[in-house]
Amino acid sequence: MPDRAPQPVDRQLPTEESRDLIALVRDVVQGEIAPRAAEEEEAGHFPREVFSVLSEAGLLGLPYDSAHGGGDQPYEVYLQVLEELAAARLTVGLGVSVHSLACHGLAGFGTKEQQAEHLPAMLGGGLLGGYCLSEPSSGSDAASLRTKAVRDGDDWVITGTKAWITHGGVADFYTVMARTGAEGPRGVTAFLVPGDAQGLTAAAPEKKMGMKGSPTAQIHFDGVRVPDSRRIGEEGQGFAIALSALDSGRLGIAACAVGVAQAALDEAVAYARERRQFGRPIADFQGLRFLLADMATQIEAGRSLYLAAARLRDAGRPFSRQAAMAKLFCTDAAMKVTTDAVQVLGGYGYTADFPVERYMREAKVLQIVEGTNQIQRVVIARHLAGPESR
């Protein structure tokens, strides 16, 4: 059964321009994304053509400076765009979030010369990015990464393996964290590596329970040579750059989670109004009505939480704790809401004829990516009580 069109969310947007932007996104969703989402996900088709459309529409660089091809949009607006995209297809919404994450290092820490040379193509030139931090043996403990970059004249030679890379094998560029110094976070440096660099190869995509249309793969660096002009920031600054990117990226994941949850609620409400048992719509039964009310409340709470964090970011205020809270709450809520949506549809919810089983499978990964929800609790607790005793 084809996915139902996402129901328009009544959004509080700061400007007429941002309202027009959301209208544009909804047009793209209805014309390019939603009609084929279920079929393409089932087939494992990566919608590169959709990302080309998004790039042409100026939707891949929304939170970045227009001087370099960005959209000059506040995070408050950018995140609501992500939510709209993820409600239609998480592969697209999460893909835009990861692309933005991959651009963060150069946009925030690159030199003016680097930004002028690379950002226009990255933000609006049809390119798609990947973000390389995790490794087979370093996930939550990202500072223990082993991929090395060794100086060789004016170049760096990168050797190692990155894991769980969204857009692995299809990205045009990767922001790569590699060890250039001693063990620990201060020995990590960031690099901008072309996707077609000699010695860079991708393993076969992981076989995942959800998001089958989004390739996730290991990336191998076998003596990949990049010039020092592609080093982002100072030597040893890479881990700080990575954490800065993740603070913003966690808000992207939170927005995507709310989008998936909203799509699941819309489907559950529509089904409950249509499905009749005992002579009346099942939406008449109090037990189910209360379930829908709880689902809607969690979605509204999550949306408010990620927007509050985004407004702090837009105001230039610290938002790391709030970003961790938003990622934690929104992704846990998405898992609960999508599971409840399956319950509302009963046996039909467990079949691929309806999209809620896909939403439930997709919601699970959002509790894991860009820092598991256990790590989010660690981050929040450190803000509250300070670092753990050693």
Mean pLDDT: 96
Largest sheet: 4 strands, mixed
Number of strands: 10
Helix content: 40-55%
Query: Helical segment tally?
Result: 11
How far apart, in Å, are the first and last alpha carbons? 55 Å
Topology:
Layout: H1 16-33, H2 37-43, H3 48-56, H4 75-88, H5 90-109, H6 112-124, E1 129-132, E2 148-152, E3 155-166, E4 173-179, E5 188-194, E6 200-202, E7 216-227, E8 231-232, H7 238-274, E9 276-277, E10 280-281, H8 286-314, H9 320-345, H10 356-366, H11 373-385
Parallel strand pairs: 1-4
Antiparallel strand pairs: 2-3, 3-7, 4-5, 5-8, 6-7, 9-10
Structure overview:
51% of the residues lie in helices and 14% in strands. The chain has 390 residues and is α+β, with helices and mostly antiparallel strands. Strand 9 (276-277) and strand 10 (280-281) form a beta hairpin. Helix 1 runs parallel beside helix 4 (75-88), helix 4 (75-88) crosses helix 7 and helix 5 (90-109) runs antiparallel to helix 6. The strands form 3 sheets. The protein has a 4-stranded mixed beta sheet. A 4-stranded antiparallel beta sheet has the order 2-3-7-6, with no helix packed on it. The chain is globular and about 80 Å long. The model has no long low-confidence stretch (mean pLDDT 96).
Distinctive features:
11 helices; four-stranded antiparallel sheet; four-stranded mixed sheet; 390 residues; alpha+beta; globular
